[in-house]
## 1
Amino acid sequence: MIAIQTEDVDIGQLINAAKGRGVGAIVVFDGIVRDDDICEMELEAYEEVALCELEKIAAEAQVAHHLFSVDIIHRIGRLAVGENILIIVVSAGHRKEAYEGSRDIIEAIKAGVPIWKKELTKDGSRWVPGDHAHGSTKHSP
Amino acid sequence: MTIKVRFFARFRELFGGDIVTAVSPGTSFMGLVKEIAEKNSEGYEAIFDQNGAFREFVILMKNGKRIDCARATEIPVTDGDEIAVFPPVAGG
């Protein structure tokens, strides 16, 4: 399952669906809203492009790491502290492939998928600066 | 020609989300974005530097594909294009 959505997902259900013949390892990444003195977080996406890029990331990871399945669900909209933002569930024959595949997927998402976060505090709001500009140097507005 | 220009994140707050605009044939990617940005001085400064070039952190897309900012003056827009302008991504 590859999705960008406002609703939360049932991670247990994703894990159960990932079990199957030959699966020896399932790795779950659950990125959540951290309590960095914020009240809430707002997420925005260039949805059509972001979804295509998530599908591409999943497909490439599946081939590169011999994964049996990849689920990526990235939430958007307004989220409270502690809520799930991004869930990645990968399955593989062995833990090495599952760990490495999961890691590659989260790094690829952070590097390039057009999604942005705005932290809402009691004093106002601030956009979370991205690390990856169009050039090789790292800047943020 | 009719072009849709989409801004995201902080740029959306400065310019508005989606702008559908009529442009003359031969208009470049850079020319189109500049024409929109010049209507909002704070927005212009967020995207362009003092030399009128795109700031290094600005990311451009044309029909879902990334565009090299250095080539923005050479790339023409064509009827029906969807242009996107946004700051560095911060998903995950």
## 2
Amino acid sequence: MKKLAAMVWLMFAVAALAADNDALQPVTNAKSILQDLQQKMSALKSVYLNFTQERQLKLFAEPLKSEGVMLIGGPDQIRWETTAPFQSILLANHKSVAQFEQNDGQWEKLKLGFPQMLKRVMDQMVLMTQGRLDALTADFTITVATNRSLAVLTLVPKDENVRAMLAALEIRMPPDFSATREVVMHEPDGDLTRIIFTHERRNVVFPADTFDQAKPLEIAAVRTAVGDAP
Amino acid sequence: MTRPNRWRSPLFARLLEMRRNFFILLLALLAAGCVTSQPLPKINAIRTAQLFPPEALVTQRGVLTVHGRQFTLNGYVARSVTRGLRLIITENLGGVLADVLVKPDGKVFVLKSNPPFRPAWVEHYFAADLKCIFAVAPETNGPVQVLSPAHFVIERRSYKLELRTVEVKPGLQPAEMFDEIKGGQR
């Protein structure tokens, strides 16, 4: 009896492993997948996500980690806040971008150099999170591959100067494309940055001043409001 | 100071298109500004190297101010009193902007530099700043102010760099980290 139970467990384990390691199959009609994705995500009015960012450099035995939250409110408001090991807030909307750094417990607003560059990055993050990838086809060649447990959207920069720094960007989602689980940025030399998203809350109502570019609300208050208080 | 026309060159226009790197214009700023690294007078004579374990990985957050504009950087310093210093600088999303090794005898190897940072700048500025703070025998006229044991300001004529130590992991770092051949093949 014990042997039988062990065999059943083993079969489950092998099946689970197989599902995870199932080879990704390229999807031929990526355009229709992207349209489906955009349609599914169009109902997304706002989203709250925790993230862990792991910088994997070949020389380091362990990844260099940071963590924080990403908030997207409305069509174009984004707040990317690093909470550890340092505190920094990036805010952007359709008009402007702002960055704050915490110094000795006080937030200092930076006089940003060339904010249009930062805003462009933030805009692209909003588009990716909202599944509006068709808007990125001018800058990236997008392919899709799936297996039973995973869908991977791979974005390869069209500009060779960009490719010299960023070989590819992967967006990893469940097979039904219902959420962004991970974003992986591959560099040409094999180093990579992995951003893992957790604690997703959809269509939350953010408190006033969450995206205020003069004095953003403290993240603890935002977390409490969306039900992600520690 | 004059700002040459490279601000509007085709190369510069292409660089502007690089989506991930919002430090691009530092290239022009540093090129156009005073690129001499003549230090301002030293204000604080504390031996900053003594603030760190002899063998450690130190994470710092930096705010670089150039011509009144500010940019944030992350710095990862592998320190070994016997084997040298290795600094990797990344931008906000993790892309490596510079990678430099300083041997115990002070010799500098620039192992990687990405726009806007040219190898010469990495060697002249980042390596010099690294030595100012972490070297066992720091440069005697390093322009570093120590505002607290975890807060430093380096001020040169062309820029100001404010650094905060956010994490220190004591312990031996991998030997290849300090090998310009093995550790340079990235």
